[in-house]
Amino acid sequence: MHDWLAPFERAIVRAESRVERLANKWCIETYVACEELRGRQNALVISYTELAGEMASWTKVADFLSEFGWSTQAWEAAILVPSYTVSRRSPRTTADVTLDADGHRAIARIVEEYGLTEFCRRLQCTHPGPSASRCAT
Hints:
elongated
């Protein structure tokens, strides 16, 4: 915790509820990825919401990969293979957790502490709260 996460020790240590712990987990994963991508030209940041909602986003991914020598055939082969992170369970029709107002406020506060609010806005995350982002794309 003495590197990138040191400024967030207070948020991590005081996380008591499941919602707070999961919000911190998401923020840590996102913050570290953003820091590793900072200044790199060989990365594309795109949200799941964009990919799930429109074909133009997949075109953006394909165009990006073509800059690195991916052929149409390689792309078509790769897209058919599920990621190892994809759930093998059947899709759910309802969320695991229904957040109350306190849960929404806790998530907004934690995301704000990590400076990821603007990043969430750009990726169409749904949580309240103003801020400048630490992750530029």
